[in-house]
UniProtKB/TrEMBL annotation:
Alphabetic keyword roster: Membrane, Transmembrane, Transmembrane helix
Naturally occurring in which organism (per UniProt): Novosphingobium colocasiae
Taxonomic classification: Bacteria, Pseudomonadati, Pseudomonadota, Alphaproteobacteria, Sphingomonadales
Name of protein: Pilus assembly protein TadG
Entry-linked Gene3D superfamilies: von Willebrand factor, type A domain (3.40.50.410)
Keyword Transmembrane recorded: yes
Amino acid sequence: MQFSRGMMTIDFLQTAVAALARLRRRLVVDTAGNTFILVAAAMLPMLALIGGGIDMGRSYLSETRLQQACDSGVLAARKAIGTTVVSTGIIPSSASTIGNRFFNTNFPSGAYGSANRAFTMTLEEDYSVSGVASADVPTTIMRVFGKTNVPVRVSCTAKLNFSNTDVMMVLDVTGSMAETNPGDSMSRIESLKSTVQGFYNQVIGSASPGVRIRFGFVPYSTNVNVGGLLHDDWVVTNWKYQSRESVVTGTSNTTTTYTRNWAYVSGSKTGDQVVRTYAGTWHATSATQGSTTVGPNEQVTTTQGQAAGGYYTCDTAAPSNTYTSSDVLLSTATEPFPGPPTGTRTIEYRRKTENGSWYWVSLSGSTCTIYQSTYNNYINTYEKVTDPATQQITQWHYFQMPKDVSNWRSESNGCIEERDTYEITDYSNVNLNQALDLDLDTVPNGSWRTQWRPAYPGLIYQRAIRWNGSGSFSTAEVTTNDEYIAPAWAGLAACPAAARKLAEMSSSDLQSYLNTLQPNGSTYHDIGMIWGGRLISPTGLFAAENADLNGNPTSRNLIFLTDGETAPLDVSYSSYGAEGIDQRRWSPSSPFTLTQTVENRFTFACNEVKKRNVTVWVIGFGTQMTDMLKNCAGDGRWFQANNAAQLSDAFSSIAKSMGDLRISK
């Protein structure tokens, strides 16, 4: 029975009343010396009350201390369990040890003269930890009345609760995420997907009814794919791209040759004759197939992705060809050519003789047909004519090409070029009126400076860096035969999976989204942090959506995960355009390297995120944590995970820290 102060008082009074009743019965039977006995009898209630108060006070003190010990025990155990129990259903053995250690520290054995101290803990269905503590507290004066001890029993419950919580995950999906860490069986990207799903289960499983838990994602590499989140008036309608076009720079003399005046002489030729037919071979697949050559005499044509999910091929080779031909020059003549250009026409009079058979295979539906054409000393004469001609000389004009981008939603890939900025040399005095790329909150106002620009990687050429790496960047227009690097063709214009705004997600929604993450591109930390901050800021682009719900505060968290150090390339096409030519934030003559520029902007953006009351967590996965990453998170909020198990531990620690651990009973 749970200990109660009221019940203990009644118990003590009942003991005293019982003693007085026994005394009264004795007085009724024996009246000798009643005066003395009456005086003694009057003292007994007072003794019971005073003794009961003393013993009850000690019991009250023991109960209070026992309650504190019970509370500390279940709190420590629940904290040690964290959120992993939601997904695993297993309580770590260390949690029970920690809980008992805290209980024993707060209520040592024999405290207040107690005996039979006991403490048990139970994991409830809602993943709270309940406890029951008990002890027997000895009495002093109440022993006179036969009450030797007071049993004290208390209960307690600790629960991990999540208040309204927003979690923005900024995830490195660069090419190195396809690698596998030593000791792991899955690639980094697959380990990350599995861990994020487990983290989601832990957080959602610990949430109380009515609490809003939202998740958002910003996959980043060379760029970020945020186009689908932007309003139309947040994007420019015209922009200039470092591109090229073909231009005519002159003409040169050449010739053109053709045949004419074909005439039959003798012999015979059959038309297309069916040799035989046979059933095609079925291949079950959803892939669309085209024409392909299987053998030296067999042209195989397949159907185009049939509804049943497959296609037919003709796998039996046709008979070998016996066809031969000879082409003989009979005579040559010339005549003036009127032009343009003027000159001399050359005419060759020729005779062609054909013999033998020619075979081929054709597919119609599921039926293969072998055809044959046969030539029997089939002779024709014809003229082969060569005329003077001119051809245009073209070169590439590399320049900043204007483009109407009003159809960017259907034409581009969703990645963006950042809005206006400048080359910063003093990051302790950044002018956010100029560095709008680092301004997390300002909503575009119609000025092109405040708007984003859609990325068109297929248009970009790195003037004037050749494919062999020679040359140097040139902001001047160039007309040349040289072929300069096209980042899209070189794999240097990666556009990751689309970012997601904060929203409540089901487990299947999350899994579907994680399946879109594919590793590609280089490591540009700054653009990931910038857009992670924009999407979680309660005062920026999505302020209305990110406001506190019904006046209840929201816990805002940004988890930044990377598997590598900063690794930009000056020939890449990034969110700042063609860096070496556009020179919006960096140029080859800048006081900082491109890597330093990216890292300085990352640090500034991270500090801007924290100013918005967002807790930043940073995880280095399979990489050494740098001071830049550690300083961004701060002590206790950065983790280095060398493998998938440590990554899971890091996310579990974050989930546990995000929760609100409280005594619920």
